[in-house]
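[scheduler] slot 2 assigned
[scheduler] job type: sequence-to-structure, two independent chains
[scheduler] chain ordering preserved from manifest
[runner] begin chain α
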Amino acid sequence: MKTIGIFTTTRGDIAALTPLIEKISKSKKLKYLFFVGGTHLDSKFGTTLNEIKSNNLIKITEVFRYKIYNDSKKDLARSLVESNQIISKIFSKYKMDLICLLGDRFEKLSILNNSIIYQLPMFHLCGGEKTEGAIDEIIRHTFTKASHLHFTMCEEYKKNVIKMGEEKKRVFNFGHLSIDIIKQLQKKNFIKKKRKYVICTIHPETQNVNFRLNSTVKNIMRVLSKYDFEVIFTMPGHDKGSFKITKIIKAECLKNKKFSFVKSLGYKKLFELYNESIFVIGNSSGGLTEVPYFKIPTINIGDRQKGRFMHKSVICCDSKYVNINKAVKKATSKSFSNNIKNMQLHFGNGKTAEQIIKVLENVKIDNNFMQKKLIV
């Protein structure tokens, strides 16, 4: 039986990791160890550890804590140093056969570092994507080159991973894991409701020296204040400049009764609200990956997600007031709404976890598996 080491450090992981963990728990050939840390434990980010604990189907092996400092480059580096030391203790304490790496968050570099030192193979979820406006781009490709198996979200991303010199036999396109949850919820609980919300999540553009944080956030809020929307702002992730964004949003929410701020909704509540939303706006990856499955528009602002695959429901614009306003008018038009009702969806059919499990169950971890070839 293979033991899979799974780590989560941020709220965005949970919708993706939950179906995978639940499927592993039912496997006769696999078991998992689940380690929870990072912003999950921090009250500034909503203490999302509680969301994980509320799922009785998931067992937490250990909670690991490192200090979440402020949002400067120096503070982020300090957090990364601490997490490296703490993660190393987990690697020395537990026997694991395979490590799961999800996405592209900087703090997960500590998991990568220790996997290499402890000579444990890794499989990477969500590789091959492009986000030219964020440092996540660099980290994601680093994870790809270090990993031994790759599970991508769509065919375009699979091709990107192969172009990076990875062997075709190691790369699989099964879709996005969070779509498994969305499909389940849509079958069971979702009743068509009146659409009255707009959900906004704004992250810093950490790879864009020309990003104007203040004006971007304020222009979005100025536009939204013109309309009779109930706008829910969610907190950005732990990046350089994220606390400044939060401060601006909180101040504006005090002035406008239609605006509200939440640290974290949890993925189930978030998906429920998508079902009641007119559109989403900002620059979060969820607007590109999960929101299209609700057949509502996404207004994607700026360069943070530049390079990603875009469904027909995604409207891209820069951060100028006039262009954000044009995007809102387009998103709320009947013609655009009708145009995306029957659009083709590209990120899976709800069976991603099932297909990943089959690969993990059958993969043979031997010398041939560990010694990767660079295909040029």
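[runner] end chain α
[runner] begin chain β
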Amino acid sequence: MDRFRFEQAVAAIDAANADDPDTLVWAGEERPKEQLHAELMTRWVRRLDPEATEAQLLAARAHHLRRWALPRGEYPEGRAGYLRWRKDLNRRHQDDVADLLAPLGYDPVEIGRVQEIVAKTSRATDPQVQTHEDALCLVFLQTQFTPLADRLGDDKTVEVLRRTLPKMSPRGRSEALELELSDRERSLVAQALA
């Protein structure tokens, strides 16, 4: 790994995500949401895979690159609109990360690998993509679980968890159960796993 180039790439991704108008309070500090998510993703990937490659770490940092730039509200309500938005958003994340990495000297093969991980292709057969998915799910549980449950209600949240938890590896689910969850959150996870 070219450490200087990698640090330039991380700085470019962080700078792009610093413009996020959505914020979260984390450890008492208000932060741009996607910048915080990128940092948490990177920590989780490093924890889940101490031998994580440069491509894994860049994908973790860029997984939701400038996510707010393609608002969900521009797509129809319902599952079909949601799925179309997610597909378009994923393609945009891949394009945006390529646009940031190419000027820094990353070649098409390196960029392609980052894009594969961001796209989460071959999750069932690619351990690096599975690690990425585990990290995504863990960041979701850390930062979005309670707001989602408050917005959707317990029953719908359990449905979301029933779709989320099977995407995780046994290691990822084990880490999820170790998170500091409220009694309500633990109960919802237990219901989803039942």
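[runner] end chain β
[qc] chain β: Residues 78-101 form the longest helix (24 residues).
[scheduler] slot 2 released
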